[in-house]
Amino acid sequence: xRARPADxxxxxxxxxxxxxxxxxxxxxxxxxxxxxxxxLVTKKVETERIDVDATFAREEIEVERVRVDRQVDVxxxxxxxxxxxxxxxIEEEVVVQRRLVVRxxxxxxxxxHESTRPIAVERRRERVEVSRTSSVKGxxx
Length: 141
Hints:
Elements: E1 2-3, E2 11-12, E3 39-72, E4 79-81, E5 84-94, E6 98-132
Antiparallel strand pairs: 1-2, 3-6, 4-5, 5-6
């Protein structure tokens, strides 16, 4: 018989070798999945009519004719004064000599008017309901 002493050298005996098994335990860690409860989510879309204030704008054109009767040497250009566009109207006057006379001006003024009034529009909204069921035992693996 052979035995191995603690210092690592072989010890001999007469008949057979002595085998001493060394046993070690392993630890395995795992995760077990189980269902404890269920959640039910329900979503609903609701449509409702609501009144909102909407702004509407409109523009008006005001035309005014102004008598001028002014003599000029050259036709004046179209001009703008604030919101008013002034267009000179020219006429040739026949006399011993020819001269330009501004007979009138056309003044165009743009005015903006705004008003607010309710209008009906559709607005969608989602509602969510959540309910839970009772606990359910699961099996682990």
